Amino acid sequence: DQQVKQNSPSLSVQEGRISILNCDYTNSMFDYFLWYKKYPAEGPTFLISISSIKDKNEDGRFTVFLNKSAKHLSLHIVPSQPGDSAVYFCAVAPRGGRNAGNMLTFGGGTRLMVKP
Amino acid sequence: EAQVTQNPRYLITVTGKKLTVTCSQNMNHEYMSWYRQDPGLGLRQIYYSMNVEVTDKGDVPEGYKVSRKEKRNFPLILESPSPNQTSLYFCASSLWARGQGDTQYFGPGTRLTVL
């Protein structure tokens, strides 16, 4: 069974409005949470991350929220722009171990379409 | 320009014909990794390497081999490809073997079709 799930395969939002992408995980041992963005014909690129000791991290228009009790992660994009149209993957990394930080488990992705 | 390169970008082959997908990074990164991306499943790690001559299995290693003879190169080898290995493959690298995931740089991907 998938340990990381993004239940919305796609999301359509009007330019200027807020985009909210969600991610749920099952294992409380996950310690570090990330969002990657992927354009067609390109590899994923890192967007924003948060460690388990925080519940919010902000970088410009992008904010990631972590609710550890609910095992839920969300990415807010405000305001959304057409250039934000891409597939967004959440990823989690476990605590401890020599490879822990790089051992990412990805969700299935959400395709965001921002309409002008 | 700092980058991860993969070759080929597209490949169509037949069952059982051995193939190699190359991956090279020019950032002197310690850590390299291979993922496959399948619809609805996200990216799953195939193999990773903490440094030269140090490789280990990820979540889905069956049917794949890797080698790390030089720091910059991390080829993915399919000795006898099968149709269930049809997928989009990504190579990634990270500066430190013990780094967090935000330091991972991904290549552009290789789309493989096995008939």
From the N-terminal CA to the C-terminal CA of chain B, the straight-line distance is: 36 Å
| Major sheet characteristics of chain B | 7 strands, mixed
Q: End-to-end span of chain A in angstroms?
A: 38 Å
Structural class of chain A comes to mainly beta
Identify the overall geometry of chain B.
Answer: globular
List keywords for this structure.
heterodimer; A: 116 residues; mainly beta; 6-stranded mixed beta sheet; 5-stranded antiparallel beta sheet; 11 strands; 0% helix; globular; B: 115 residues; 7-stranded mixed beta sheet; 50% strand
Write the layout of secondary structure elements.
The complex is a heterodimer of chains A (116) and B (115).
Chain A: E1 4-5, E2 10-14, E3 19-25, E4 30-38, E5 45-51, E6 56-59, E7 62-67, E8 72-77, E9 86-94, E10 105-106, E11 110-115
Parallel strand pairs in A: 2-11
Antiparallel strand pairs in A: 1-3, 3-8, 4-5, 4-9, 6-7, 7-8, 9-10, 9-11
Chain B: E1 4-7, E2 10-13, E3 19-25, E4 31-38, E5 42-51, E6 54-57, E7 65-66, E8 76-78, E9 87-94, E10 105-106, E11 110-114
Parallel strand pairs in B: 2-11
Antiparallel strand pairs in B: 1-3, 3-8, 4-5, 4-9, 5-6, 7-8, 9-10, 9-11
Mind explaining what this structure looks like?
The complex is a heterodimer of chains A (116) and B (115). Chain A contains no helices and 11 strands. Chain A starts with a strand and ends with a strand. In chain B, strand 4 and strand 5 form a beta hairpin. At the A-B interface, strand 5, strand 9 and strand 10 of A face strand 4, strand 5, strand 9 and strand 10 of B.
Summary?
Chain A has 116 residues and is mostly beta strands. Helices cover 0% and strands 54% of the residues of chain A. Chain A has no helices and eleven strands.
